[in-house]
Amino acid sequence: MIPRYSRPDMVSIWSPETKFRIWFEIEAHATTALADLGVVPKEAAQKVWDEGSKAVFDIERIDEIEREVKHDVIAFLTHLSEIVGPEARFVHQGMTSSDVLDTCLSIQMARAADLLLKDLDGLLAAIKRRAYEHKTTPTIGRSHGIHAEPTTFGIKLAQAYAEFDRCKQRLEAARKEIATCAISGAVGTFANIDPAVEEYVAKQMGLTPEPVSTQVIPRDRHAMFFATLGVIASSVERLATEIRHLQRTEVLEAEEYFSAGQKGSSAMPHKRNPVLTENLTGLARLVRGYVTPALENVALWHERDISHSSVERMIGPDATIVLDFALARLTSVVDKLLVYPENMQKNLDLLGGLVHSQRVLLALTQKGVSREDSYRLVQRNAMPVWRGEGDFLTLLKEDPDVSKALTAEEIEACFNLDYHFKHVDTIFKRVFGE
Amino acid sequence: MIPRYSRPDMVSIWSPETKFRIWFEIEAHATTALADLGVVPKEAAQKVWDEGSKAVFDIERIDEIEREVKHDVIAFLTHLSEIVGPEARFVHQGMTSSDVLDTCLSIQMARAADLLLKDLDGLLAAIKRRAYEHKTTPTIGRSHGIHAEPTTFGIKLAQAYAEFDRCKQRLEAARKEIATCAISGAVGTFANIDPAVEEYVAKQMGLTPEPVSTQVIPRDRHAMFFATLGVIASSVERLATEIRHLQRTEVLEAEEYFSAGQKGSSAMPHKRNPVLTENLTGLARLVRGYVTPALENVALWHERDISHSSVERMIGPDATIVLDFALARLTSVVDKLLVYPENMQKNLDLLGGLVHSQRVLLALTQKGVSREDSYRLVQRNAMPVWRGEGDFLTLLKEDPDVSKALTAEEIEACFNLDYHFKHVDTIFKRVFGE
Amino acid sequence: MIPRYSRPDMVSIWSPETKFRIWFEIEAHATTALADLGVVPKEAAQKVWDEGSKAVFDIERIDEIEREVKHDVIAFLTHLSEIVGPEARFVHQGMTSSDVLDTCLSIQMARAADLLLKDLDGLLAAIKRRAYEHKTTPTIGRSHGIHAEPTTFGIKLAQAYAEFDRCKQRLEAARKEIATCAISGAVGTFANIDPAVEEYVAKQMGLTPEPVSTQVIPRDRHAMFFATLGVIASSVERLATEIRHLQRTEVLEAEEYFSAGQKGSSAMPHKRNPVLTENLTGLARLVRGYVTPALENVALWHERDISHSSVERMIGPDATIVLDFALARLTSVVDKLLVYPENMQKNLDLLGGLVHSQRVLLALTQKGVSREDSYRLVQRNAMPVWRGEGDFLTLLKEDPDVSKALTAEEIEACFNLDYHFKHVDTIFKRVFGE
Amino acid sequence: MIPRYSRPDMVSIWSPETKFRIWFEIEAHATTALADLGVVPKEAAQKVWDEGSKAVFDIERIDEIEREVKHDVIAFLTHLSEIVGPEARFVHQGMTSSDVLDTCLSIQMARAADLLLKDLDGLLAAIKRRAYEHKTTPTIGRSHGIHAEPTTFGIKLAQAYAEFDRCKQRLEAARKEIATCAISGAVGTFANIDPAVEEYVAKQMGLTPEPVSTQVIPRDRHAMFFATLGVIASSVERLATEIRHLQRTEVLEAEEYFSAGQKGSSAMPHKRNPVLTENLTGLARLVRGYVTPALENVALWHERDISHSSVERMIGPDATIVLDFALARLTSVVDKLLVYPENMQKNLDLLGGLVHSQRVLLALTQKGVSREDSYRLVQRNAMPVWRGEGDFLTLLKEDPDVSKALTAEEIEACFNLDYHFKHVDTIFKRVFGE
Predict the structure, then answer these.
(1) How big is the CA angle at B371 (ends B370 and B375), to the nearest 5 degrees?
(2) pLDDT tens, B190-229?
(3) N or C: where does chain C have the smaller number of CB atoms within 10 Å of the terminal CB?
(4) Which residues form the Adenylosuccinate lyase C-terminal domain (chains A, B, C, D) (predicted)?
């Protein structure tokens, strides 16, 4: 992933340094377990830990060996033997490369999930703060982009909170799924290595043993992980799209924070563009794009083929780095969002009261007018308002058929905003549990 | 979905009859709840139940009304009023169309999930039966399509079992997520309807209330559902691909059941093609193809737009019907799979013992030969075998450097298959819990 | 595809009737070619044409046979022999089922492309008509959803025209690619059939011979076809999205035609929702969703496997039927689109002249003010306007630094709309060639 | 894209150095055109060329400015003015950032296409060479992974040649589509810049003017480009999959070249795995994964939003770099592929002549036996062979019903391989034109 969309903590999970350090820990723990089983000398296991723990792995040297032997794990083990000495021959006993590679990938994905979960916590906190701030800020609810009925800006944000809270739960499930350890040998039969080694390494590295692996950890786990990231990215897009809409010139109910020195356009200095949320829309497309390759990775041939590897070398870092960046960016956008309640009110008033038509309709039916008649009464007064030929409240009061069913006070009561907000507490309690 | 890939139970979930019956139940339960709240007369609610329960909804009549009013829920309500009489005006009070549509979709998706879960149970049972049947049937494990080390056909199937068991858990989670009820009005504020109605209907219909809806149930739930189906389909593809490989002419370790009257090809009567599993591969592509549209459905505009609807009208039925068909077909394939242990043994012997090279390598290192030297010793005896110039066991015994480290008996011990199967019980216990 | 999104002409291309008729024609032409080569009797070929041409194929009978023999082409040939009599044994000589199936699919896809090309012609005509109608209707151009500079509604439509004209050219190329004929036998070697038969049938059916087939026509051709449909669908989504934006309550520069009897919402009778273009957005997602399965179909195993078949049975009809429907619907939307030039003017004036800031900037630099200074001058007068604290023209005239560079007349000239429209003719000439 | 899958020429197209050089050329050509129009002084335009041509753009300095102004084109122009001096104020007159950015992207994509076309030429040459080498090398053709009829390895490769030749034509079309130039101002009206500037720059940079742009070049062009790459990647996967199959232990008709020093596995030294073609399978998934984001980029809002940008920053380089690498790798694999004709013959003989059953069937029908009877005769002799209970030729000769129709010589003639290869020349002539 390009630096523009990368943050250091997530990048470091995918660095060669981290990878080789995890490889070392897996190999060293396995050697310890083998020593406990009496398969290798305890002193050798200790030597591996002693030398390896203080060593800095020389990535260029490993690369150099790999160019020769064309095999990354052999290259690493060769380098490890340069560090540890002859005791290194007890390392990797009965193991296969994938035992190291796949368990390492599990650890990297689990750590990436941890960062993303932290990101989600930050985002949830920001949304919650702004939701309470605007719990009763009236704004128009829109279906089909058309004014519907009043809601509050806080409810909009409560919806986003509930959605990202679900995302968090999904990611927790996906993290749990991916955090497995496989040290089971060339085809997963433990022919040359006792299952106790896998159990030991799993425990030490915070993983659960893969019940049955086949040289590799089955890729349905990874597919589920990336699919979950794709769903989260889509939720990012949803909130980003909402903000882009709110910042439209004609709407202008909210704006991304615009720093003093920032230039919106080389040509139009007055422009304040929702470039962050537009960017998030694009990033969501990227993360979604990684889902299908991950799904296609599931059907490996027989016990394994290596077609998944190139895909994961790319989408492992790319999907998690982009999503980490996107969640952090969205958090910042929400945190600093400029909200304009006065413009929300202005837009609420735009339709001359038409947004209250549903209430009038209901009031009429409650007075015994049939649904069809009520509908027609409301519609015939709404249409002139729509054409700019009058005010809905006035027209309704002047309509003799409406007046037959409703008094002027009853009609006016239909135009009271508070009516719409009486269940805001209920919704907030459901969402925030408080 | 075309009849060729459809089974009646799943199809019926998506029929107009089922849909209108669910609509009726939602509306009628809501009317009962409104009556309990004193908003509408109890007698009216009773009348709705009485008349509606015994009525058969006339789909052609509803279609006819819809062609006129261009609105499906209004068309249904109009028809309902034809059935119930004037009391029907109390139905749908304070509700919006999506309250009915979205809650109905939740119910249909939950019922579809129930069928798929039942399918998975059937598939798991079939896999388990065959896994135990072939628990110790030796077969070659293959990585990269190349012989690796021995495994058993039962372990192959145990892997499939574990994978589909995970699929089941994922689907249970997705089912739980999708089974929500929204009766919250035009923008989700409960302005015109008490939240108690939603709670009542949810309970009656076996759903949980949607914490915060916005006319619609948020589409991240549906996205997660379809993404989960995409993962399951990919697992179907994996097992199907395995069987296709096993049925290849040169491999022929297993075959799809071939009925007496079946013709494999109009031109080549001897051919027995794995057409069912090839078909499953294609069906998996279809189900995967529905994931991205579902993800794109998440970012609706503001409180809702209706772009998701056409997508769901198609992929709701298509994804669940195809996957139901695929799971049933796969179950049948597994159930009736012709397994040829003798061919498995023949293939195991194909490489003249080369598949035991890893064991020889390990035996050498355990005798103190360095990893690098062991590797070279094994490789120089393996390559002639590969070229068809000898038998691995014989060559090893004749190699003086090998003989320095290993006795003839020790070399022969490396060629014993049982060595590979000593942990089959462990694996089966992990997977099947018994 | 469900009837809701289907039109009869496209549906009929994919009907069993059409399919069997095409099968018959392929078989009958091939028999004629075989007769010309002296392989089968001329009278037999004539009998096949005579009986088959006047026959109505009994689809239920063919289905019945297929249930027995489990092979569709054999079922058809058996039925054909029931119609033609013993001479039918000369039909299909040396051919393989795929010769018929794949060539038939080519014909169906080519015919589907012809309908879609006709759809595009209709859409282009509608766009062109409306583009000329609104060639000089001023409207604000928006980047990032923010007002940028004036343009005309005609230019917007000219862009759409150019885009769909490109789509047409792409589809013509895809149609040409897909229109091939393969009659080459079980693995494409023409072992049992002379290449002259393929050439003859190709010519009769309006196809070109597939240079090298392998029982099947290579699926990269089909992939390119569906990928092209995916691009066209995305262009449909673009224009649909534009209209959805224009119909937003706050913008309201255009609206989908709203028939008298139509109800927008059961709850809010004043609402006129852009449901057709929202629907088109969803349909675009569907068509895009078919691209990846088509791409996954390319890598068939060896000479062929049949995994592509189930995919094509679905996406062949679905993609073409949905896109046909979508293009027709979009044509109708464009054709009847309600355009509100007065609202366009109102929105143009919304920012108090800020949209002319780029021109002022340019005027300043042309008078020798540095780009940086010009930018600052424009920005310091623009920001108060943005905050609703004044009118841009007035503020600029009152700014002493601006006045140093520009006279009042020169400033006013920057606010003249015609300035922006001087190249409309150029653009129209480029797009429409006239 | 990570270095592992990158080649320097393609990487350099996407480097900041190349980008800024192209930006400079666009700006400088535009300034020349403006000077020709008399809008800016000719000396200024000359000064821009003189200073800019010899300058090395300081990427760190540009980045530093961008961090301050948060706008990449302004940062570049500021740096350019540091190089050129005060005359730099005449640069970018009437232009908008996207004029530079989008035209630059067109140039980069066109250059990337040129490299990919060169790659395809290399691949086609390698395939052609091997195709002629194995024009008449007999091998079994397989449908459904099951032996069908004989073909030649040259015909297999001819198919691949024809497929990649189509890919080349598609890429040429996509390259032509993408190579457009837009210098049309903030919303594409040429309000502040004469269309002659666009025409001039287009000509100088080898592009065609975009007929109607809207600040940006319409993204359907880019979508078509990436969709085309997705199709090519799928064809890469097809040939890679073929080779993976051929290298399977049981098949072993071909192998990827295996260098002396290469280790196939840390555990199984005899293994020679098709890791290059497995890798290509994964890379194909990656390139396919970029198609949908590109399709989603088409529907920008109004005249433009910037959501496409982050997507293109990633997939522009990633898709072209990966595909360049994949095509080069595939070329090398084909070029050095180890082909084993003797194993092909061994596999051909595997079924005891069953692959000739279609010919026997045909011979029977040509002697007047009905299709159904012929089928039954062939099938009853084929089934014992399939079960390993005899040799097809012998059984046929011993079958009295067969003998009634065919002499021993006629039966034997059905087993002659040359029969299948009589049209190899025809196929080669069609594919290679010679």
Answers:
(1) 115
(2) 998 999 999 999 999 999 999 999 999 999 999 999 999 9
(3) C
(4) 352-432
